[in-house]
Design brief:
Number of domains of chain A: 1
Oligomer: homodimer
Enzyme class (chains A, B): transferase
CATH superfamily of chain A: Spore Coat Polysaccharide Biosynthesis Protein SpsA, Chain A
Organism (chains A, B): Caenorhabditis latens
Largest sheet of chain A: 8 strands, mixed
Structural class of chain A: alpha/beta
GO biological process, one term (chains A, B): chondroitin sulfate proteoglycan biosynthetic process
CATH class of chain A: Alpha Beta
Shape of chain A: globular
Main location (chains A, B): Golgi
GO cellular component, one term (chains A, B): Golgi membrane
CATH architecture of chain A: Alpha-Beta Complex
Strand order of the largest sheet of chain A: 1-4-3-2-5-11-7-12
């Protein structure tokens, strides 16, 4: 059961900024973006950038899961300002649960299965796991994710030691994966590199397991295998050109800022006091 | 003289995404955003996020200056996809010129003075220096920058060792600056923390000097002083509340990704070869 659950159905259209609307676009496949998030110094900045990106898109439903005891008002307000339809809920990770975000994505999959009829008119949807610190080209959503029929895959920039991790494609079929790290995974792909048809999610009870026979780094591969997918099912996107292909998503990380007052010092240890925020709201 | 100069006047409106238009909004003050940029591993990701943010805004003119011998096609394409009006030009920094971006911003100020009549209908504008790696809340532009009459200032998150750098405001007047680093500057403010009315830029030939009596870290302060501004001229934004004020811009930095092939090693030194890009375009 979620600790806190907020649902929003923003049906009104902002006259000044006609950015999003679910009206008049019922033929478009709905993109369900699943974003785990957690309190940290750079979270509001990261989340704001992702909101600025997603709020360009039509027919997008955003599921945001706080790794914490409760939802955070400032995050809720960012979601409201997007004019997107969304669910924001809190599911703290169980003690000693491995890998940040896994439990939250699992809760999102369960939420989708139990509630999709409340936020969708049909099963014409696709699920994408979009973390809040990555960088996204809008074409990833408009040209790739929206057109996934069963399971789509594409290259991801700057992930796991590679300039680009990508499926290896031959005759429009995925025949392997060009990655530096753990290339022998059956689906050697990062969370940001695939999207799955909603129907497939609904027909299965697969979730991110707390462990996976191929190791904790292979949970993506385990999920896709649990969904009954094979390499030959994969639709590769963006491989039309042999060279100068385009990266449309990057596994960016925001540097933790060097705040002077947070530097370890004997002075801070002897005379601890809250850091200066000049009256501003700051997460830390 | 610019080495390469590209001007675009995207007057057509994309029917599917009515995100920007210069028509029917002539009473809105035009925001001129000046962005120096340069080739680096994370540039396309950073620039894509900034484009996603700025493309929400009406009446915005984007001046982008490449620190390099020529403009970069993939950056040009990102600018075109925003449907914003823009100028993209290349001005490589002179040898040994201090502080990245200073020369490019100076070239932008000169460009604005010589060309504003070609991209604006009146002098009803405001100039903002928006770097491509920062994170921006849309309200910074809509509620703060657009409403600047002469010189506006506001808090900036995660800059120069502070959680928030901000003007110190008393009776709606700026009486000092709450910053950790170099607080005795006359205007102790980061580039992201102010915007200046276009008229003021046009009436002066002030640029970012290659040196400044108060030190290289005080170039912002020198520019504002050169524009003839005093602390009492400053309009502070966002100080209505005593507490829980909102940060609308963060001085974020993107972590340089750890690409295995770029790690120093005897093997790479003995047998150098280009890193694997899997056929993708990658800046490095």
């Amino acid at each position: 059961k979620p600790i806190a659950l907020t649902e929003s159905e923003n049906d009104e259209i902002d006259e000044q900024e006609p950015r999003t609307s679910t009206e008049g676009s019922s033929t478009l496949k709905t993109i369900i973006v699943v974003t785990p998030t957690y309190k940290r110094l750079t979270r509001i900045a990261d989340f704001t950038r992702l909101a600025n990106t997603l709020s360009h898109l039509l027919n997008l439903y955003w599921i945001v899961i706080e790794d914490g005891q409760e939802t955070v008002p400032v995050v809720h307000k960012i979601l409201e300002r997007t004019h997107l339809n969304f669910t924001y809920m809190a599911h703290p990770s169980p003690p000693n649960y491995p890998n940040r975000g896994w439990y939250q994505r699992t809760m999102a999959l369960k939420y989708i299965r139990e509630n999709y009829t409340s936020f969708m008119r049909s099963q014409n949807g696709v699920v994408y796991f979009g973390d809040d610190d990555n960088a996204y080209d809008l074409r990833l959503f408009e040209e790739y994710i929206r057109n996934v029929k069963k399971i789509g895959m594409w290259g991801v920039g700057h992930v796991a030691g590679s300039l680009v991790e990508s499926p290896r494609v031959s005759n429009q079929k995925v025949v392997g994966f060009d990655v530096e790290w753990s290339p022998d995974r059956y689906f050697a792909i990062d969370m940001a590199g695939f999207a799955v048809d909603l129907q497939l999610i609904l027909e299965s009870d697969a979730v991110f397991r707390s462990s996976c026979p191929s190791g904790t780094g292979a949970l993506e591969s385990c999920l896709l295998a649990d969904l009954g997918l094979k390499r030959e099912d994969v639709e590769p996107f963006g491989f039309e050109k042999k060279n100068d292909r385009e990266v449309l998503v990057w596994h960016t990380k925001t540097l933790i800022p060097d705040i002077y007052e947070f530097r370890p010092s004997a002075w801070n240890w002897l005379f601890p006091k809250p850091p200066k925020t000049n009256g501003y709201f700051v997460e830390y």
